[in-house]
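Students often ask why we bother predicting the structure of a whole assembly rather than each chain alone. The short answer is interfaces. A chain on its own may look different once its partners are present, and contacts between molecules only exist in the joint model. In this exercise we take two input lines together and write out one structure for the complete complex. Read the inputs first and try to guess which parts will touch.
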Amino acid sequence: MKTKSFRLRFKKDLQQNWTLYLLIFPVIIYYFIFHYRPMGGAIIAFKDYVPKKGIWGSNWVGFKHFINFFKSNFFFRIFKNTVVINVSTLIFGFPAPIILALLINEIKRKNFKKTVQTITYLPHFISLVVVAGVIKDFTADYGIINDIIAFFGGERRTLLNFPHLFVPIYVISDIWQGVGWGSIIYLAALSSIDPALYEAAEIDGAGRWKQTLAITIPSILPTIVIMLILRMGSIFNVGYEKIILLYNPLIYETSDVISSFVYRRGLLEANYSFSTAVGLFNSVLNFSMLLIANSISRKVNETSLW
Amino acid sequence: MIKESTGRKVFRFFNGLFMLFMIIVCFYPMLYVLFVSFSNAALFMEHQGPLLKPLGFTLNSYKMVFKDPMILKGYVNTIFIVVVGTCINIIMTALCAYFLSRKNVMFRTPIMIFVTFTMFFGGGLIPFYLTVRNVGLYNSHWALILPTVINTYNMIIMRTGFQGIPDSMEESAKIDGAGHLTILFRIIIPLAKPVIAVMVLYYAVGHWNSWFNAMIFLQDREKFPLQLILREILIQNDMSQMTTGVGLLDQEAVAETIKYAVIVVATLPILLIYPFLQKYFVQGIMIGAIKG
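Now the answer. The structure tokens for the assembled complex follow.
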């Protein structure tokens, strides 16, 4: 086979599989238009984009927008907020589903186990608009959380107007919505552990706690590592959807992140080139983080995304 | 069965207690929303703290919600987007997954890289927005359907599902002279029903809950999906349409219970079907996990 020239193999492949290529054609077109075209369109980060002149007709300005961004007061603020929100969700949100999965795994009664699973997965399906709306209402000065605070003698106030409360509210609601769903993948890993391992440990006299440390954790470690890589790859990436539903100008100092800044500057104020530059800086940063996390894990753990 | 130690029993007890706590934490907020939606507006304004049942059961809030033409229009728009969008999602995702699950195709690896690269890198929000506008989808429902026709992560799950189908099934069809389209739609898809079911659910829930693209691409209020109307009511507190005709003093009170009724109306369809389909959801994640 290998001695055959590329052209011959190509010809044979086309003859055999041309209907297959016909099927994949719309898929290629889709990825081209809605994924690769925007990648190419990101070139306006280096231009002064004017809609009338189009992407190619607009003037080149080099790194002007990047330099303006790095020099602006916003750079430090949105960069810091992005990292703070991410590191907080990582520290509190990453272990939560693992712990939940380990505890669910210890439940013996099947019906109870199923009920716990069904109900903890439920919040995952509620739309962000609803979740954000409920958070806003619960934390408002007349809301149920303030009812409880007032009951204990605290003062009523709209919690989302206080900059220092944004991150806790964001992180706690994130855990609420994601902990059950996030545990599924670990439960899957737990269910594939060979029961014979536990039986052997039992005979050796190892208690449940020792079994967890010696068998359970090492067995799900590859899954944990993969999830951690994916998480590390998005350490500079906080989605704008929940942020722009929850924040308000009073608390921009702690709640405005890179993506929400791009949204505001780009779509509300139509600063296309500048916000594209900020977005591109963010994409490149994210991609580099993913590569770094992946290569570290490959060296240390021999687990890798690709 | 080996006898349980005391420590183990204590652990089991507290674990059970913790699980009950989790159930309450996850479920009570939803229950609270449901209770408020059936409550009497004036009574609710005076009430403080958690509710264990609706305050003075009434359907008033729901009546007002269903009187609002925007909510009904939003419902119709959302259903259109969910149905048409999900159909196209499934067909396109299946085409891609089928191609990438074939073994003797020369360009499989390059196309796999071409497709998966988009999971890790993208042009960003603004170029995406400009692209959709330039393609001429602005202010059209297709802007909510076409740009997200394939979710690459879902596609990989589907491909893994397709790969699990034994080759012999296709071989016999090929001998009978079946083409790729016949094999895909007559053999692969029927055999991969669980995976397809998961995909239908993932995509449909995704469409049902999405609002951001609608917000940036739609201009006419007539075209707004339910979630966008919901956002006006919940986040921007804009309920002028629904509370007209209510005395000014009562407006604030009524507005609160209406909010909760709208939430129920927009969320219940998904929460009602979810428990029945739960086993499929979980299966889907598992298939993805094996690959991951």
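Check your guess against this: Chain B has a mean pLDDT of 87.
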